[in-house]
Amino acid sequence: QVQPVESGGGSVQAGGSLRLSCAVSGYASGTSMAWFRQAPGKEREGVAALHGGGQSPSYADSVKGRFTIFQDNAKNTLYLQVNSLKPGDAAMYYCAADFIPPARPMATYEYRYWGQGTQVTVSS
Q: What is the sign of the dihedral through the CA atoms of 54, 56, 58 and 63?
């Protein structure tokens, strides 16, 4: 059973940084993982994805150059470094995982395993 558990969210001022973590129990080599976010009244959207096949990570255009996704295999943990935060980045951030390599890494339907989310609040 794969179970992602997120942490690291918080409240920061615009321009600030956070490092979100996702500990994944049941992780196996080759697992594809991704970060999504959902703001109130909006659909859940892909932010960044790390392919299990070793390809380069994918990023949403809105976060390129500011967010970095990476993992620590020894700790079975996925991270999202978020820098230069904007009020528009405020959302619940979710970690997702699956053993099947996604055809569309930023699509929610590609992932079967989801965490409960960690809240990011950005004040202007």
A: positive
